[in-house]
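[step 3/7] fold_predict: job queued, chain A
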Amino acid sequence: QVQLVESGGGMVQTGGSMRLSCLASGRTIRGLIMTWFRQAPGKEREFVATISQKSGFTKYADSVLGRFTISRDNAKNTVYLQMAGLKPEDTAVYYCVAASTMASAVHGTGADWGQGTQVIVSS
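[step 4/7] structure written:
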């Protein structure tokens, strides 16, 4: 099991940028697929982006494609989510997830979750 702690959230104006970080502990993330999910108030949790073990594969939700970039630094046991062109609809709690399989990674099932970090985009 891996422990995940997200940071970097806060409030930003529409059109602004923000970078979220997810620091893992307890084990190395080298063999894990890392994913960001988010959950807005009153809405279901949704997939945001995922990255494979060696960063060779990434996948994004259509709603963030071209605006968000997921990356990882295995040596630092850290995953990042660079967000640009932020919109009010990006307001949510963002969660970092670690999984062993791509199916678990994109669905968040059978995976380890962080506590989340709040992002608020003001209009």
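[step 5/7] annotate
Helices lie at 102-107.
The radius of gyration is 13 Å.
exit 0
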